[in-house]
Design brief:
- By secondary structure, the chain is mainly α.
- It has four domains: about 160 residues, Lysozyme (Orthogonal Bundle), CATH 1.10.530.10; about 60 residues, Roll (Membrane-bound Lytic Murein Transglycosylase D, Chain A), CATH 3.10.350; about 50 residues, Membrane-bound Lytic Murein Transglycosylase D, Chain A; about 70 residues, Membrane-bound Lytic Murein Transglycosylase D, Chain A, CATH 3.10.350.
- Helices cover about 40% and strands about 10% of the residues.
- It has 17 helices and ten strands.
- The strands form five sheets. Strands 1-4 form a two-stranded antiparallel sheet. It has a two-stranded antiparallel ribbon with strand order 2-3. A two-stranded antiparallel sheet has the order 5-8.
- Helix 2 packs parallel to helix 5, helix 5 packs across helix 6 and helix 6 crosses helix 7.
- The longest helix has 19 residues.
- The chain is globular.
């Protein structure tokens, strides 16, 4: 809770103001606590990303650009507006905030099917009466529980830091391309602070266009603009290079006078990648000192598995994260990291498993195939007990 509220102080004022402006229940401003614990770099095994945990397709539908340079699902302003637009659409469709929130979790078609089933069986059309996934059934109660904790932390033995009722950040349009490290330096803030406000940027360079904005702490906005106006050196030290399929990374590193390790880090490539697949690569700009310290700003682009190496394992009764990690010869930390830093698992849940070097050994792939085979009783989800909920207000309190 302490870590989460510390992260929330950067974004909560903006989110609350947007929620209030739209006349939505203020509890919705706390939804990122349930979705991501306000972690701007949260990334789920199902590829949901950002504090609002948008899937790629849903993000695109609500105008969130996703490309090699940038992922709008992690942009605080864009993703917040998209999430509130989506929630308002769901409320308009279902006429109920509990159903709208449930649909945000499992999808509107999931709720539509559940409602259709209940109407056919002449059952009530409220959330508690619907047949929905366990995660969705617990979704609204989690939000209400968080509301009670925030309203009265002392009764739960907690002391939460106050969040000032004032804007934390200011949005600034850079006049031209700029290195992430340079932007942080001109704002006189650390790279960590800059990344926390600008998690949408996936590369060490921010490309300027009409829609580009960077977020700077409001207290540093004037410092940034003054330093930018007086800065008389190049703002970028990286450039894009269109590689050819099969080009050796080792030869490219020599050509651009950079180590292979730095080349991989700048482009989010696995340590096992030897040649390019014809993608665009980020390399040092001409005349730049490539020996200077490089700080990767790739967020989720640090070495990851491609789809061919990703294997889903269905959790069995009695499994723990530790036992799964031991069985497939991976560290507990990497297993947690690959699955959104989750600490609890349940029977029937699917988690991503990868062996050493990003590969699951063949014998383990066979075991996984058997474990995930339809009809395997041990992989079935256990029954759950209904949880009573309090109604969410239809107007902002």
């Amino acid at each position: 809770m302490a870590r989460m509220t510390d992260r929330a102080r950067l974004y909560l004022y903006f989110i609350v103001r947007e929620v209030e402006r739209r006349g939505m229940p203020t509890e919705i401003a706390m939804l990122p606590m349930i979705e991501s614990a306000f972690n701007p770099t949260a990334y789920s095994v199902s590829r949901a990303s950002g504090i609002w945990q948008f899937m790629p397709s849903t993000g695109k539908h609500f105008g969130m650009q996703q490309n090699w340079w940038y992922d709008g699902r992690r942009d605080v302003i864009g993703a917040t507006n998209g999430a509130l637009d989506y929630l308002q659409k769901l409320h308009d469709e279902f006429g109920d905030w509990e159903l709208a929130l449930a649909a945000y979790n499992c999808g509107e078609h999931c709720i539509e099917r559940a409602l259709k089933r209940n109407r056919r069986l002449h059952k009530p059309a409220n959330l508690l009466s619907l047949k929905v996934p366990k995660e969705t059934r617990n979704y609204v109660p989690k939000l209400l529980a968080m509301k009670h904790i925030i309203d009265n932390p002392a009764s739960f033995g907690l002391v939460l830091a106050d969040i000032p009722n004032e804007p934390y950040f200011a949005a600034i349009s850079p006049p031209r391309h700029i290195d992430v490290s340079m932007a942080a330096e001109l704002a006189d803030i650390s790279m960590d602070d800059f990344k926390a406000l600008n998690p949408g940027n996936s590369r060490p360079v921010i490309l300027q266009d009409d829609s580009t904005r960077i977020l700077i702490p409001a207290s540093k906005a004037e410092v940034f603009m003054t330093n930018l106006e007086t800065h008389d050196k190049p703002l970028v030290s990286w450039q894009a290079y269109q590689s050819k399929k099969g080009e050796s990374l080792e030869k490219l590193a020599l050509r651009f006078e950079i180590t292979v390790e730095k080349l991989r880090a700048a482009n989010g490539l696995s340590s096992h990648t030897k040649v390019s697949n014809g993608q665009q690569l980020l390399v040092p700009a001409a005349g730049d000192d490539s020996n200077k310290e490089f700080v990767a700003f790739n967020m989720h682009l640090a070495p990851t598995l491609d789809d061919s190496h990703l294997v889903l394992y269905t959790v069995r009764r009695g499994d723990t994260l530790s036992s799964i990690a031991r069985r497939y010869h991976v560290s507990l930390a990497s297993l947690k990291s690959r699955n959104g830093n989750r600490t609890l698992i349940r029977p029937g849940q699917k988690i991503a498993v990868a062996g050493s070097g990003g590969l699951v050994h063949r014998k383990h792939r066979t075991h996984l195939a058997k474990a995930n085979k339809p009809g395997n009783k041990s992989a079935r989800q256990s029954k759950t007990t209904s949880i009573s909920t309090l109604p969410i207000a239809d107007k902002a309190s």
